Task: structure prediction
Amino acid sequence: MTEDLRPDDPVVRPSFPHDSAALTNWLTTLVRNREYGTLADLRRARNPTNAHIRAGWYGGDDHRELFERVAFLFAVYHQGRPVPSYGHGSVGVAARRIGDGTGRGPDNPGAQRLLDRVVASRRIPWRHLQHTITRLRACEQYPPSWTQLTDDLIRWHDRKARIAYRWSVEFHTPATRGGAAQSKQTTWKDATT
Result:
């Protein structure tokens, strides 16, 4: 039993689901295949390009712009990098790696201020996230997990998920003895596998 649609019937379009892991895989393939032109296009935030549209496909109908912006952050981090990094942990865990010889994470006033700005934001703090990614790149530390970052930002406004709170807790959680010694020696080069 099929019903015939009349010309005045509303068209129902299916909602396409998002796939943050597929976005990460596509982006890392760009670095691996040395598609520097496409990565440069992704860094052009003001004028959407074909690369932005392609990144948005992975976000489906509901999260297209968010996926385009995460692709922008990925391209900012990987500018001039010959090896892709899938990243590790959340933004809170990654911010613990920001710093220099005087201290990292909570012991570094700059890292502390940066994370405070990120978690205090009601809207997704794109500018502060870009600054976080840029600082990680400058410190030669690996980024947050791109897949987890995307998933966290999708749930940014979900009060039950409490993403900003979780990032803050992970930033301030003391490192374990084994993890503290390891985190001092780990650079972005070590975390690319």
Notes: The CA atoms of residues 20 and 151 lie 7 Å apart.
